[in-house]
Design brief:
This protein is mainly beta and about 140 residues long.
Length: about 140
């Protein structure tokens, strides 16, 4: 099971939309959007990270907490470049997911393609449904 608890995220987003900043840009980068769903025996989590170099993505798991960090760096600019519009947020993005005990955090796979980071987290073997065999034993009589 995948759990997400971030009670301040929606409040921060609302405050950014309402107040913004004096320069007309956000005061901090927006959270990286994500989708999460289950397919068979694994959970799939996709993060939108357009314009992020794959080498600028870090994934860490500690005590069932998955942390995704990514940095979108500014484009190299020369003396003759004058920025006209800068709406794409730059800087470090970070997101944490709390993974349930039923997921196998030792076998997470990560792929990055077309600006989307996709993680595949398998369900742990111990959490998968299994059939228990019932043995048919012979009835033993107790002698007194």
């Amino acid at each position: 099971m995948l759990m997400r608890t971030d009670p301040f995220r929606d409040f921060d987003r609302l405050a950014q939309q309402f107040f913004g900043s004096a320069s007309g840009t956000w005061s901090k980068p927006a959270a990286m959007p994500m989708d999460a769903y289950r397919v068979g025996d694994e959970f799939v989590v996709s993060f939108d990270l357009p314009g992020v170099d794959p080498n600028a993505i870090e994934l860490d798991v500690e005590r069932n907490v998955l942390t995704v960090k990514a940095e979108r760096r500014p484009l190299p600019a020369g003396d003759d470049v004058q920025m006209q519009i800068a709406e794409r947020p730059l800087g470090v993005f970070s997101r944490q997911l709390f993974l349930g005990d039923t997921l196998d955090t030792d076998h997470i796979r990560a792929d990055y393609d077309a600006g989307v980071l996709t993680l595949r987290i398998p369900v742990a073997e111990k959490a998968k449904p299994r059939r228990i065999e019932v043995n048919r034993g012979e009835r033993k009589e107790i002698q007194a």
